[in-house]
């Protein structure tokens, strides 16, 4: 059962890297693996063999999930882009149950962390939404390569901080669809230089995983109760970024002339479905943890 659980979890995280709105960290929390993964990565130097044995199955299934996510979600985003956004907004909203403390206290510090968690990413998203700032993924200058590395680091952070999503981040800065369109064998044959962009993002991601996991492990162990309020704010911010970004803005503008009622109604249904699934996973995991403790 443990192997099956790891496999499902790895697939979900892999798909979540591609799918708008899915927080890898929130998924880990819902399944009760967040602290275990953080500890394994942050202690990989001290307990290399043990950490590798624990992490390797996740890594394999994450790769499979990424591949599935690219080819399945790429098609769905063409057919029902708004509906997919709402589906994963529902999943994220429900994940707050897994992030919140058993007893919620809205004092000044907690309110500040909650507010900062929402405002900072939302503000950055609005900057990209309302300006002509654009990151060119087809340019390979030194400055752009550094930017790609920074994006890779940011993506790695989203995998460790509950309430954040890699694709929500990429959508908020307006490069998600562009990157997705490069994932095809035909494109690679004619534009092999795109692998320079992939490599720069990957190097940033690896650096982020190694460094961020260690920092977060210390912060979470010391400020667990406080930091959850920041995570909740980030969750609300990710939902905002999924619904309001450059790519979805084009959809809303197209609805002025041709309202897509099917995508809209289906989106509402999928939002409710995503919320239900997320809450269901939370209660299943809560019941499992209770049984284990007893």
Q: Keywords, please?
A:
mainly alpha
Task: Give a written overview of the molecule.
The protein has one domain. α7 packs across α8 (166-172). It contains 13 helices and no strands. The chain is globular and about 55 Å long. The chain has 294 residues and is mainly α. The chain starts with a helix and ends with a helix.
Number of domains: 1
Q: Pick out the low-confidence regions.
A: none
Number of helical segments with 4 or more residues: 13
Shape: globular
| End-to-end distance | 19 Å
Mean pLDDT comes to 77
**Estimated radius of gyration:** 19 Å
Query: In terms of structural class, how would the helical and strand content be classed?
Result: mainly alpha
SS elements, strand count: 0
Order of helices and strands: HHHHHHHHHHHHH
Q: Main beta sheet, described?
A: none
Strand content: under 5%
Helix % is over 70%
Short synopsis of the structure:
Helices cover 80% and strands 0% of the residues. It has 13 helices and no strands.
SSE map:
Layout: H1 2-18, H2 24-30, H3 34-42, H4 48-79, H5 81-99, H6 108-130, H7 142-158, H8 166-172, H9 176-181, H10 185-190, H11 194-243, H12 246-254, H13 261-293
């Amino acid at each position: 059962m443990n192997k099956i659980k790891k496999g499902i979890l790895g697939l979900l995280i892999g798909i979540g890297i591609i799918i708008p709105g899915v927080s890898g960290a929130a998924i880990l929390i819902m399944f009760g693996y967040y602290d275990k993964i953080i500890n394994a990565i942050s202690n990989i130097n001290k307990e290399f063999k043990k950490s590798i044995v624990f992490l390797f199955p996740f890594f394999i299934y994450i790769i499979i999930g990424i591949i599935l996510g690219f080819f399945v979600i790429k098609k769905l985003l063409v057919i029902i882009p708004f509906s997919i956004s709402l589906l994963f907004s529902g999943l994220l909203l429900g994940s707050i149950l897994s992030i919140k403390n058993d007893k919620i206290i809205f004092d000044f510090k907690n309110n500040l962390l909650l507010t900062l968690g929402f405002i900072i990413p939302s503000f950055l998203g609005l900057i990209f939404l309302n300006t002509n700032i654009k990151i060119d993924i087809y340019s390979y200058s030194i400055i752009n390569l550094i930017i790609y590395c920074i994006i890779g680091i940011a993506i790695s952070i989203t995998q460790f901080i509950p309430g954040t999503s890699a694709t929500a981040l990429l959508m908020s800065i307006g490069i998600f669809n562009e990157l997705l369109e490069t994932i095809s064998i035909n494109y690679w044959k004619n534009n092999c230089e795109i692998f320079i962009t992939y490599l720069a993002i990957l190097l940033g991601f690896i650096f982020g995983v190694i460094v961020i996991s260690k920092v977060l492990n210390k912060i979470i162990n010391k400020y667990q109760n406080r930091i959850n309020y920041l995570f909740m704010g980030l969750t609300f911010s990710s939902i905002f970024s999924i619904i309001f970004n450059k790519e979805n803005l084009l959809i809303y503008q197209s609805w002025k002339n041709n309202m897509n009622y099917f995508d809209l109604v289906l989106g509402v249904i999928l939002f409710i479905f995503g919320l239900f699934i997320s809450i269901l996973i939370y209660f299943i995991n809560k019941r499992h943890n209770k049984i284990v403790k007893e």
